[in-house]
Amino acid sequence: MKKYSDLEFLRLSKGEKFLYKLTSFFAAIPRAIGRFFMKIALFFKNLGVGFGKELADLVMTFKNGDWKTRSSYLVMGFGSIARGQVLRGLMFLLFELVFIFYMIFAGAHWLSLLPSLGKIGPHEEYNAVLDAYTRVYGDNSFKILLYGVLTLFFIVAFIYTWRLNIQQNKLAEEYLKSGRRLKTGQDDLRSLVDEQFYKTLLALPLTGIMVFTVMPIVFMILVAFTNYDGAHDGYNNALFGWVGLDNFRTLLSWSGSGVNYSATFGEILTWTLIWAFFATFTNYFLGMFVAMMINKKGIKLKKVWRTILVMTIAIPQFISLLYVSKMFAKNGIVNGVLLDLGWIKQAIDFWGSQEHNALLPRVMVILINIWIGIPYLMLIATGILMNIPADLYESSRIDGANAWQQYTKITLPYMLFITGPYLLTSFTGNMNNFNVIFLLTGGAPTNAAASGASGSVGFTDLLITWLFKITTGAEAQYYLASVVGIMVFVVVAVISLVVYNVLPSIKNEEDFQ
Amino acid sequence: MNETLEKRSMGLRASRTISNTIIYVILIVMSVVWLIPFFCIVLQSFRIESTWQVGYVIPRQWGWDNYRALWNSDFKRWYLNTFIIALAVAALQTIIVLCMSYTLSRFRFKMRDGLMRFMLILGMFPGMLTMIILYRVLKDLGLTQANAVPGLILVYVASSGMGYYVSKGFFDTIPKSLDEAARVDGATRAQVLYKIILPLAKPIVIYTILTAFMAPWGDFVFAKYVSFGTSAGMNVAVGMWSWLQQDMIGQKYTMFCAGGVIVAIPVTILFMCLQKYYVEGVTGGAVKG
Amino acid sequence: MASVKLTKVKKVYDNKVVAVHDFDLDIKDKEFIVFVGPSGCGKSTTLRMVAGLEDISGGTVEIDGEVVNDLQPKDRGIAMVFQNYALYPHMTVYDNIAFSLRLQKVPEDVIYEKVTNAAEILGITDYLMRKPRALSGGQRQRVAIGRAMVRNSKVFLMDEPLSNLDAKLRNQMRAEIILLRQKLDTTFIYVTHDQTEAMTLGDRIVIMKDGYIQQVGTPTEVFEMPKNLFVAEFIGAPKMNIMRTELVAEGGKYFVTPFGAKIEVDGEKGKALAAKGQKSAAIDLGVRPEHIVLAKQGEGIPCVLEVNEMMGSELHLHVYTEDGTRLIVRVPTIGLDPAERESLVQGKKLFVTFEGKVMHFFDTESGENLLND
């Protein structure tokens, strides 16, 4: 592709300019992807180099260090205590003792079972007292996986702390050599409310995230490589074990025997993307439109209009969604009123549960989502519209722009620029918008062609509601849910990556500032 | 010359009147559409001639029966559960979010960028995925079903540090030189936070409390998981959802309406009082991304 | 009441950008030092390293003989005034000034004494119960100074304190800072990008560019003996005229030959050149606008008038020479013949000249002053 200089570009005709921009946009995608992989490669290279450096540093520290430093390689915190930093040293030592204690009494056990996820399943055993065969439970695959992962986390943490302990020694030696004073335990404590205050502040939130987000995610990623489901629940019915990439193969291969997961997955993914697109952009533009109407000069009672809309945000969504869903039911108010008025002869099946009409329910969820979303977008748009400098409009009016031109040349670019990242998060948020779909339709109407793969699949089901159905269905195919979850992650990550790397409005951050 | 000018300005005035009229019509229609469901729900909560869905709006017989029935049902328990959860989450989550966002706004430590990127990536995993294991863990801890309330609080609060964007955006707008001036004046970082920054961050503190308080009223899916069919552990969303399922809707439809009113009133009043702060947070958050 | 010593102080940002290179400076007790330079020259960064608001990447900062690298700002015995004042918006003026004292747990009656005293000096007694947003720019500036005053600090740091004020107020505050300094009688480090402020306030001036110190000296030194082209052009307004020309050594005498003219280097400068054994060379010749005078027709450098700026007591004539070099000439209006003044219009051909003792000679490559030690 030919590259134009700025001046050459300006000489092009309108069509050529557009074409040029379009081609350069698409030409940028492979480069962006290439850059991304380069980044990953670079990351691993840096990781390797960093690891090598760490090792070399460890060796050098041992070689050059005094006996206090050297003994710290074995007894953590020894050097610190010997140099008078008792508090630090004791913390290190305590951590080491806890670690050793844990590894001996529990960690080793879980770790040894991790490769197999349990050896003895539930079985019948002769019980002499009862003189009968009774069910005896053996290992618990779930616990083995969970505690195995925890133990791995703990080992990583230990290695990190051990490394920290050695770094501390090295630093302390350097400090003493250059005649500077070492920090005492009191200094350490005091710095936790001052220069190291961030450690204090982050301790609680990060612990929460590690335990309740990171750990479960790691666990569930691992589940994707097992056959964990209702039948193989790991304790009561049967153990579960590693199956490698089988689950991914089942989901992605087109020629699955029996049920065709990949077709189901493809269908749901398509609808999910369509839904996310419409849900995001209808709300966005209509919300902006409403905000502009209310903000228009000469419109009175601005506060009243705004308050009416904003009030609907306050009402918990489950009430409004469930109620609206019932309003449009076959025997609901809407049909009732329409019949009374004689506008229709027969009740309309808005949710299409009988004749498998997919289009109407899909349009309905998008429409009702507009009803839910406009007040919110109206608020955001109002805030941003008020921030657009008035002189932009004034100068454009002097330049002779009409209202529509003002909108396309000033308002819209400004809005898109400011809300670019918001649009992205709102798109991915809509992909995972469980509440609207589940409370409105529960995924209905049933899609017979796609169902059977795992319980019933509906035409309005998103990946996220499907995931929910999979785990709560009769078979409780956790492994499948986990694979679907990973796929959702991949889709979201790819979209975010492309948007961040290719969209010019996000890159040129200074344009409107 | 003068005539055409006059005509033109007349035309301008006329077209403005027309466009404003159209806008008023649209706004009135919108207001009606937006309010009708809530209007209906209130009316139907007073309908006593039947408990199932009907095809008309105005009740034929009015009465408080549905509200009385609520008082005698598990709804009381659900309401109390939700209220306790909302209070606890509002308090704890606010503390955690503020810690997180203030730190990321003000401190430049080695892992900061990595941490933020890591949380961005974590956010791309569907939260539903983690529920299976969290449910099992809570079950082992005995915090499910009838004891769902502390379990739910724990889970809501624990991961709330990820939602730091909006308040970090706000903290970023407070000039850093205020921190620096205070530090030169002799304040520790901790003193800077509660003597200088927190008083200035009142709008965002209120926003955080408000959103944290409102979220549990609407949370459905995880609450459903954790209560697992045990009425004593349900929140209003799960409990009232069960009333609208096939087998219950015939007897409970009007009670659902009454319950909806009872749930919506306090939350809406609180929201309308603090609306200013909500608007500030929402717009700021969208701009910051 | 302390000396400040910076030894090889260095600032490197994470992305490997070096903001300050080996900065060496001895600041004496009670001295008023001004860091001056264009934006991005590292002057504020250096000040902030002294304050403890930036980490020091290398070297040491000593205050009163004690290395303070590892100390928090509050433990360094400094007070600081910020460019945007950094007043706490939620506190009254009184509380703003009292803030540091309250943190030190000073008794309230002592605080009252000190705050009202400072307010008196600064003339803000009437505003003590107001919030900062109800104050004008100048008043805010005074509050910021008052807040720093009550700390009884060893070193007083000011980071562009006047740059947010309008021109008139700035002149007034400049005079007040001189008075304040006499009252406080302590060590000052003052950062500005405005050379006028630097010249009028500083005992010594540190001129910086791209993280390097260009010259340290008293206002007179840096004005009369700029070490290099950068300093020469930075100090003085309008800036020094620079002409690319030849320095010719002829029989123990030196001449410069700008644009066909031939002017002898006389007085001290000529002797200094001789003492250095300077040979003939291409140079950048610097002459300040006030040292250039209008010459008789046919004498000196021929040039054409482009713009005539009437400044009141003087005219600034922007002229260009035959090769397009632009020069500025300051002509006092007193003693200027009205007819001649009227004749100075765009396009007029002029001749200008200057004396030999007011010239500066710079190496064309390094930009260094040829007379540097």
Say what the CATH topology of the largest domain in chain A is.
Answer: MetI-like fold
* Strand-pairing-aware structural class of chain A: mainly alpha
What is the number of domains of chain A? Answer: 3
**Overall body shape of chain C:** globular
Averaged pLDDT of chain C, please? Answer: 90
CATH classification class of the largest domain in chain A? Mainly Alpha
Keyword list:
heterotrimer; B: 289 residues; mainly alpha; MetI-like fold; 14 helices; C: 373 residues; alpha+beta; Rossmann fold; OB fold (Dihydrolipoamide Acetyltransferase, E2P); 2 domains; 6-stranded mixed beta sheet; 5-stranded antiparallel beta sheet; 32% strand
Strand-helix topology:
The complex is a heterotrimer of chains A (about 525), B (about 290) and C (about 375).
Chain A (H helix, E strand, L loop, with lengths): L5 H6 L2 H51 L2 H6 L5 H5 L3 H28 L9 E5 L4 E5 L4 H37 L7 H7 L5 H27 L22 H7 L8 H35 L6 H13 L2 H11 L5 H9 L17 H29 L2 H9 L4 H29 L2 H7 L22 H10 L5 H25 L1 H4 L6
Antiparallel strand pairs in A: 1-2
Chain B lengths: L1 H44 L19 H7 L3 H32 L5 H11 L5 H13 L7 H11 L6 H9 L2 H9 L4 H12 L1 H17 L2 H7 L8 H8 L5 H25 L1 H14 L1
Chain C lengths: L3 E9 L5 E10 L4 E5 L6 H9 L6 E6 L2 E2 L10 E4 L11 H11 L4 H15 L14 H13 L5 E5 L7 H18 L2 E6 L2 H7 L2 E6 L2 E6 L1 H6 L4 H6 L6 E10 L2 E4 L6 E3 L1 H10 L4 E7 L4 E3 L6 E10 L3 E8 L4 E7 L5 H6 L5 E6 L5 E4 L10
Parallel strand pairs in C: 3-8, 3-9, 6-7, 7-8
Antiparallel strand pairs in C: 1-2, 1-4, 4-5, 9-10, 11-12, 11-14, 12-13, 14-20, 15-19, 16-17, 16-19, 17-18
